Each structure stands twice: as structure tokens, then as C-alpha cells.
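Q: Structure for this?
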Amino acid sequence: MSSKLLVLLLIFSLNLRGCLVLASDPDPLQDFCIPNPLFGSIKTAHLSILPCKNSDEATTNDFVFSGLKSAGNFTDTGLATIPVNPTVFPGLNTLGMSFVRADLKVDGINPPHFHPRATEIAYVVQGRIYAGFVDSGNRVFARVIEQGEVMVFPRGLVHFLMNVGKTPATIFGSLNSQNPGNQKIPSAVFGSGINEELLQKAFGLSLKQIGTMKRRFNPKT
Amino acid sequence: MSSKLLVLLLIFSLNLRGCLVLASDPDPLQDFCIPNPLFGSIKTAHLSILPCKNSDEATTNDFVFSGLKSAGNFTDTGLATIPVNPTVFPGLNTLGMSFVRADLKVDGINPPHFHPRATEIAYVVQGRIYAGFVDSGNRVFARVIEQGEVMVFPRGLVHFLMNVGKTPATIFGSLNSQNPGNQKIPSAVFGSGINEELLQKAFGLSLKQIGTMKRRFNPKT
Amino acid sequence: MSSKLLVLLLIFSLNLRGCLVLASDPDPLQDFCIPNPLFGSIKTAHLSILPCKNSDEATTNDFVFSGLKSAGNFTDTGLATIPVNPTVFPGLNTLGMSFVRADLKVDGINPPHFHPRATEIAYVVQGRIYAGFVDSGNRVFARVIEQGEVMVFPRGLVHFLMNVGKTPATIFGSLNSQNPGNQKIPSAVFGSGINEELLQKAFGLSLKQIGTMKRRFNPKT
Amino acid sequence: MSSKLLVLLLIFSLNLRGCLVLASDPDPLQDFCIPNPLFGSIKTAHLSILPCKNSDEATTNDFVFSGLKSAGNFTDTGLATIPVNPTVFPGLNTLGMSFVRADLKVDGINPPHFHPRATEIAYVVQGRIYAGFVDSGNRVFARVIEQGEVMVFPRGLVHFLMNVGKTPATIFGSLNSQNPGNQKIPSAVFGSGINEELLQKAFGLSLKQIGTMKRRFNPKT
Amino acid sequence: MSSKLLVLLLIFSLNLRGCLVLASDPDPLQDFCIPNPLFGSIKTAHLSILPCKNSDEATTNDFVFSGLKSAGNFTDTGLATIPVNPTVFPGLNTLGMSFVRADLKVDGINPPHFHPRATEIAYVVQGRIYAGFVDSGNRVFARVIEQGEVMVFPRGLVHFLMNVGKTPATIFGSLNSQNPGNQKIPSAVFGSGINEELLQKAFGLSLKQIGTMKRRFNPKT
Amino acid sequence: MSSKLLVLLLIFSLNLRGCLVLASDPDPLQDFCIPNPLFGSIKTAHLSILPCKNSDEATTNDFVFSGLKSAGNFTDTGLATIPVNPTVFPGLNTLGMSFVRADLKVDGINPPHFHPRATEIAYVVQGRIYAGFVDSGNRVFARVIEQGEVMVFPRGLVHFLMNVGKTPATIFGSLNSQNPGNQKIPSAVFGSGINEELLQKAFGLSLKQIGTMKRRFNPKT
């Protein structure tokens, strides 16, 4: 019988891992709220406000993040990002902010993408970057920004980066949501499995071209 | 001893059913949050943001609601409503919206009521309806609206409907809270058990009249 | 021509009196914002966040309200209220709070009413008061409260007061919106001009009874 | 000199047309706020909370919208939309909601797009529609929905529609922001003027293909 | 094995005590949410929105607080405060408000402090009090307030009180957060263990003076 | 007469400079809102959401800030800050974020201070810094952070910095309010003019010591 109990308990705690995903981003309701490690790791796409451990158990290290000292892993387009939110930096939980380090190889790009739940402030740590965003009226605001300059990408608008300098470039971006989300246009549109006829009509591409795009952005297809 | 444990566990999980009712309506903190069926059904008057299942387990059907194809059950005043919130349509959870189908028989009415936590947009699917609301200065804004027209009822203000056409009428209402609440004036005031002397003085009615009202709106009394 | 200008200017400034009614209640965006007297008095039903004067011109008196030292004017039901919001106490503007002094003669009542945009905390300064509210499930929560006790009325729910003591009673109520609004059920429903047939059906009253109610709550009819 | 004044005044009022664009979507601060027509028409891309006229001047018609009775103008992809926000329906101002009628010819599509500031609830008035959205993890949630069914598109996520029935289809969509915004992926990405080299790299297309896309989505180029 | 289970359960429930600390202060998502006593007492510094019991189990007494009838315990500076939040008054949970009774002996003071998450409205129940606050520009707004007067302290700004009358004084303060927080400047700065060299430089005090201050505000050092 | 008009207009526009200070920090209601330069410069202590120019007139440069390339002017404590908000970087207006560059000479400090309306994320651009904050329970969380590390200071809590390295240090801080405010404890408490007797009692200092402090933090006294 106690094994039945154990099973119940396990089911219960397993389900809690993906849950207790409540609440919203506005003002914190307490000084801080360090997620309780008991609840395990939460998948990125479903990150949220997490249950906290007792404030007595919080330590200074809960509020310091040291994982941005070097670049992350580079993609095919010469981009390496380290997005930092409460799953990797517990101290952020409930405080309404998150951040990211983005590195671009020479000629590397960060493809058009947007954050559904946050404005982003991009501070150029080093390098020369063509950066910009598009507004709801399809107008592009883009130019080259350099070390020490800051560009703002308004909440929910498509934006992009390209290293146009002769050295690697690094951006420190901060966002006003603890889980801003990220929709990368090429893979969200061509790599997610949207009906091909719809894509054909939407982009005026041939079925063959759509097929090529789908294979590029979702190799598993 | 393990039976004691079981009891503890049961108490614990039973209580969780009515709880984990936290948070508020503003911006979602994740793409979506499908409530975990493990937590059972939640009573309407206490509906709230619910713990979610893992996002991997979400399916397309979690985001589609098919229960509005025909009218609900009619009341004495010729009204049938199907209010839709996360208890019946899990995909709404954390997204800050809910909706309702309201049908009115010929001459039927939706009595004066208000939603404590939402503005409502009423779209006339069919019929001719006298619709309106009252503002804080006791001014009524009311007129007949017809198929294809839309009326807005500002957050928290008393509003009402009456079918003044020769055919049944249908409204699709949407509200900007996942749990807008609903206080129906006749039953909230006369059917809830407020002190009779207070009601007498408030409405200038006789004790007998108040008694009649109470029996009408709360037959159990 | 300059007189045309003057007219234009006057129209412009007159319209500004009722306008610049923007924004919402959440966090202030500055330390404070004392409304600019240039914009004149704003009607109560349309009160809102007002344009401010330069912070240099703010004085200590802008943040102190002295008009609650004695009771206001009593109504027929033995109630006197002094609602305090930014129109009479400029320092409240943008800060998300307002308050009210309510006095009740012996046997006096505050009829069922609700605030569309705020929770209320009622502190009994003196007296014995039967106080309560109704929830969305038509359940009443009411009892007698006495000097020094505090009752909370959740946002948007119908509530009421009756002096059941042998002396006058006084309440200090505070609300978490700078313009909570107030819908008094008797006058909002019977004194606002809602269609009589609808009211008949909603409350199960005769046309004659509705007529009596209308005359009571809107003598102008 | 008075002509100088006139010029000043004109500059001033002209500038006010594009301004007084303040505030945010949360709770209203008053019952309602009908925009003052004196401030003229506001451009769609910059719509916002507008200054109001005095509440005494509000009329019932300010709260009813009658412009959805028939479909709007169709685009090349067989789509006609009538987005309704405070610029065309003043009563919505400050109330945190807006809505849209979308008609699709047989085989018509609404290309992938998203609303940066709102969740959308889509109610099928008539027809059979393949509808769906993509989450932050590039997973698509799509299926056919029919008359009377409702699908929810979470805030800020890419979504799309295609009429897969044998008759025209109509959707009534409601959104929880008075100005949700709309980024249509094809034109925002290929028709806005983003650097061609960046687009080449992002989508793996040839310079020629990018050129074709740009001409399609921005014929002026 | 069942003892292992018990341990697990205990760990689990112990951790829940300090957790389920989620969400934020804005609009409630349900009529009310009475914290479930099962979750035990929560430490003040980490107070937050708590899981609720089923609404059926709520009673009128959950919404009335009777603990303010007499003053609390006095400190060395002649101050006694009874801060009331959901840990002691469950009915406040999720409703966005809390309150406090503060008593001052003759010549007593409430030292400079601030509430990180709320505006405060201070109503003088009895006495004469020198009260004020400092804005972001280091300007002080202070004067004597008397019985029946109300002063507002804007969110997050340093404020203070001193009884300048000849009798004890009492304040009823209400705040627009259920957990406003409180940083008392003397003990937060000198009693918390900030590096002494930093304090020396910040305040221009000698190491000896800093030592005296530290001993005064943190006797354990 | 037209001169009278001119005077009226001037009064009007002068007053607008310090006003139109409305609204709150939450979600933007439009893509962006570049403040209209017509409204002149706004004083820092009263910064707020500003009226915008027409979106057609927005340029890319409105969204890029170039003034952080070198340190600002140093104070006596070896600190130089460049706070950046909509008054100096118009593109931030309505987007809910602002930022700051802080430079510290060797041994320099940023005295205990707090931001009433924002959480801060501090990214170390160069140097070694002792950094920390105090929570509502007077517990200090402090340690040395180095180049590439990030520390978070929760909303409204007292925090501080000291350069403990052998080279100058630079911080890039970002905050989730467009006008976070800043109360510097030493000058807010001792340099603002709070009653001396109150300060004596609050800090346990002699009248002479208070006098010394006042002269240091407010030389004008």
C-alpha cells in the first residue's frame, strides 16, 4: 500500500514540474522569490513564474549570474546566444526582467525574430552591427550601431542584427519580461509544419521552393 | 501509519483542487498554459488561473471550443447562456479572455447584471435586441441593435438585453478577463439573503414585497 | 480674425476640461503628479488621470486632505458620504488610491452598491454596523462590525451597510483606484430610465410597482 | 502678429493630432472615454488612447458599431478584413478591447501574421477554415474549424487562416487590446526594406529570389 | 519505507510553506481567495499570494479583522505598529490592499522608511503628528497633520512621522499592495551588514561612528 | 488683444511642459511613441510618458542612443552616472524600460540608494565591484562581481556598489520602468530638510552630528 502512495506522490510531483505555471509579469509581490530546486528543471518553451524556496534559504549567489563571460555555441548563420531567464538564473523569478548575450561572427546574422512579451534594449559590448526593426506599418528602422551604443526594439516587433564590422561583435540585451519568448521567423514559418498550400499563397513561392525551405528549417521533415 | 499518510495526502490533494488559485489577469508569462486535468474540476464561482500541464502535452484541440453550436438551457426569462472560461475551455487559461453565447427567445430578457472584472463586446449573430448599460452617473445608454452590429459594455457597469424582434436572437460576447464574474442584480440583491430591513429601506418596498422578491429569487428560503 | 482665434482657443481649452482623460490605474510613472488647476474642475462621473503641474510647484498641502473632519450631508436613508478623489484632493492623482468618509445616522443605511474599479477596506471609526457583500455565486457575507474593526469588500462586488448601534456610526473607507466609480443599485436600476417592460420581467414586479420605484429614484421622471 | 499666432496654434493642434498618445491598456480609469472629434483622425499605425469629450456629450451611438454588416475589400489572397479600434469606433477607447471581421473567399488565406499586443479569440460566423498558430518552440497547432467553433490565438504568436470549405467564410475576432497591432510576416519581412544580404542569409534564398519577393510585397521598390 | 515517504511528504509540505509565492498585485482573478490554512504560516519577509481554500468554505469572519482595537508593542522610539496583510487577515489575499495601525507615544517617532511596492494613505485617528516624505529630487514635503486629516505617501518614497502633540497619536494607514514591504532606513543601512568602508564613504562618518551605529541597529554584531 | 492671446497661449504651453504627465508603465498601446520636441525639456524629477509626434516623423535615430561611449562627470565618492530615460532618449517613451552607465574610480562607491519603480539588472562591463542589496528583513546580499557577471537588484530595495579592483570599473544597468526614480539614502535623509529632532531620534545621533551631516549633503543649508 505504501508503494501505491509512493506512486501517487511521484505522479503528483512529476506533474508539478510542468505546472505551477501561473501568474503574470507585473509588479513583484515580495522582495524576491528564488525557485525551489525541488520542482526540477522547467522546459524553456513553458517557463513561467515558479514556486519559491523560503527566503531564509536565499543566498547572494542566487542573485548573481556568471555564465555570460564567453560566447555560446554558434549556429550556421554565425550567431551564438545565451538567453538568461529564471530557469538558469533563479534570482530573476517574479522580477519582470531577463537578458541575453548574443555574439556574431564576422558577417554573421541574427535572423528576423520577435519577442511576444517584451521590449528589448540592446547594448553593443563590441563590434559594428547593422540592427533594426519593422513597425506595424511595414516601415523598417535600421542602421549601423557601434560599441557603447544602445538600440531599443519595441515590444513584439520583428527585429534583426548583422555583423558588418571586421571583428566579432557582442551584444548585451535586456528585456522587460522574465520569459519574453522568441519567434524566429524563418523556422516559425517554414520549419513548423504550416500547411504548404497556405505558405505558397502567402509568399508567392512554388511548391518546390516551399519544400526546399521546409527541409532547411526543419531537417526532420 | 501509512494510512495516516494516505489521509494526509488526500487532504492535501483535495485542498489543491480548490486552490492554487493565484495570480491575476494581465500579460501571460508563457505562450499558453493548459490546465492540468489532475487538479480536477474547479467550481465556477472560484475559477482562476490553474496549474498547467507540460507544454509538450498540449494539443490543437486544447485551443478550439466546439460547445457553442446550439443554444444552452433557457431560464424563466427566456435566456440561455453558455459562459466559456478555462474550466470548460482549457486553452484560455492565462490569456486574459473569455466568451459567452447568449440566446434570447422572442420577448426574452437578460436581466440587469454586470461583470466585476471585464469589459464585454457583444456581437449580434442574429435577431433584434434592445441593449444597454448604465454609467456611474445613473445615465442609461440603450437602443436596438441588429444582426452584425456590436455594442460595448464598459468594465463593471450594469447592462441588460431584451429580444424585441420577431425571431429568436443570438449574441456572441467576448470579455477581457479569463474569469469576468457575473452579478445578476435581481438574485444578488433579493436572492442572496441580505438583511430585509436594509432592503426595505434601500428600495422603499414593504416587508411583504421584499418577502415576495426573496421567494422569487431564492426559492429555498 | 484674432477673435476667431480666441474662440478657437476657448473651444480648445473648454474641451480639454473634459478630456486628457487617459491612462490607467497601475504603477505611477513619476513620484507624483499634481493636476494643473489650469484645466479646471472635472465632472465626477468622468474623473480620470489629469495633466500635472510642474513638480517644482507642488507644495506639502497638495498631499494633505483636511475635508473629512466632520460628516457630509445626509440623504433620506441616513447616509452621508464624502468621496475623496483627485478632483478634490490633487495629491492622489496617478497614485492608485482614493478614500471616503461615510456617516450613518442611527438606523441609517448605505444601500447595496459596488465600485466597478476597486477593492474597498472599511475601517470603523465609531459605531456598530451591519456590513456585508455578495459574491458571484449569490452568497452573502455579512455581520456586525464595531469600532476598530476592518472589513474588506472585494473589487466589483455588491456591498452594503446599516447602522445597528444606538449612536451615529462613521466609516473610513480606502480603495485601490483613484477613481473607483460607484453604482448604487436602486438608482442605477430603477432611476436611470431602463425600459420598463425589461424591469418588469427582470424583477417580477407589476408595471405600477416599477412606476413607483422609478418616481422614487428619479423624481424628474 | 495674430497670423503668427494662428500659425503657432495650427502647429500646436496639428501636432496634437499625432500625439496625446500616452498610457497603456490595463484597467480603465473611468466608466468610458469617448475621443474628442476635435483631435481629428489618428493614423492607424500610431493609434492610442485618445483624449475624451465630456461624458455628458457621450451618446448611445458612441457605443454601437454598425460597420460589420458586410465584408470589406478583398486582397489578392482572397481576404477582406475590417479591423475595428477606437479610430473608427470611439466607444472602445480605454476599455482594453477591439475586434475585427475577416472574410475569406473560397481558397482564400490570411497569411501568417501576429498581433504584438493581444490575444485573439476567433469565432467562425460561417464556413470551414483551416486555422492555427505556432508557439515559441516552433510547434504548429492547426486544424479545420467550422461555423460556431472558436479558436484562441495566444498573445504575440504567429497565426494564419485558409478557407478550405466550398463557400465563403467569415470570422468575428476579438482582441484584448484597443490597439493590438498587426505584423504580416510576408510584407513585414520582404516588403519593408530589410537589408537584402541579411534576408538571403536568414532564409537561404538567392539574391534574385529575394528581389522577386521584395517586388511582390513592396511594388514601389 | 513509509517513514521515507513521510520524510518526503514533510520536506514537500515544508517547502510549500515558503513557496507558492507567485503572481503579482494587479486585478484579482476571482471574487476572493482565502488562503488554505493547510499551508501554515508564512514568514513576513516572504509573504505573497497564497493558495486558497474552496470558496464554499469561506466564512464572513474571513473578511473581518478585529486585531486593531488596541495598540501593538512599543519600540524604543515610541512606535507601535500592527501591519495587517494576508498572513494575519486571510480575506486580503489577491485583493491588492493591506493596512496598518501605528501608535506613537508623546514625542515618539516612526523613523524614515519606505514601502517598495505601495502608495500609503495615512488617516489620523487621533493626535497631532509631524508627517512627511522626500521625493526623488531630495525635496521634503512635511507638516503637522491632525485628527481627521489624511496624508498620502507616494509609492516607494521615504516617509516619516513624529508625535508633536501632547497626547498619544494613532494612524490608520492603508496601502495598495497586499504585501507592500518595508525598508526602515536606519536598520536597513546600518543594521544589515553592509561593508563598513562603503558606509564610511557614503555618509562621511568615521569608522568608529559607523561601529556605534551598527551596534545600535544590530545588537547581535 | 492678440497680445493677451499670446500670453494665454504661452501660459498654456508653459504649463503643458510640466504636464501631460499621465499614464503608467505597463504594456505599450502602440508600436512606439516618440515625444514631440514641441513640448520642450521635462525636469528629471517629474519625467513621465510624454505626448508623441506623428509616427511618420519617427526616424531610426530616435531609437539609438550614442551618449554612453565615455563616462559622465565624477562625484566626490568617485562615481559617474549617465541615467538614460525618455528625456534624453526619446525612443524609450512608453516602452517600459530605461538604462544607465555607471563608472567607479578605484575605491569609488555608489552609496546606498533605491529605485522606487523598477528592478535593475547590472552587467559588469569592466572591473571588480563589491555589489549588493538589502531585503525587507534587513538581510544583506552582497559579494564581489567581475567583468561579464550580472547582478539583479529587486524592485524598490536599497542597493550599493564599491570598486574593489585595481582599475576603473564600468556597469551597464537596465531597469524595467521608463522612469525608475532614484532615492540616494544619504542625501534623501540628511540633505532634504527632514526635522532634526526626528533624525536625532531615528539614528541615535547628536544634534551636532546631524548638523554635520546636513551640511555635507545639503551645502546650501
